[in-house]
Amino acid sequence: MVVRVWFVQDYKKKKLSFSIELVLMDRKGDRIGAFIRRTLIYKFKEQLQEGMVFTISSFDFACNSGLYKPSHNE
């Protein structure tokens, strides 16, 4: 389920979004942060709404080593 969705503004090109950021939750209640890069925003921006349930396939994952983490997980 999509718990939270927001657009990250591109500060250099004010009219463009840099990415879509998401917090996703599985059926056990575990949450994870995700993002959709700029080149794929057009495919998903009309479909993603908070509270909606989706099956996600063909995705990549990586460890978030940055300081900002939208969810608490290991």
Automatic annotation (TrEMBL):
Top-level taxon: Eukaryota
Protein's recorded name: Nucleic acid-binding,-like fold-protein
Ranges for domain Replication protein A 70 kDa DNA-binding subunit B/D first OB fold: 1-73
Pfam families per the UniProt record, alphabetical: DUF223 (PF02721)
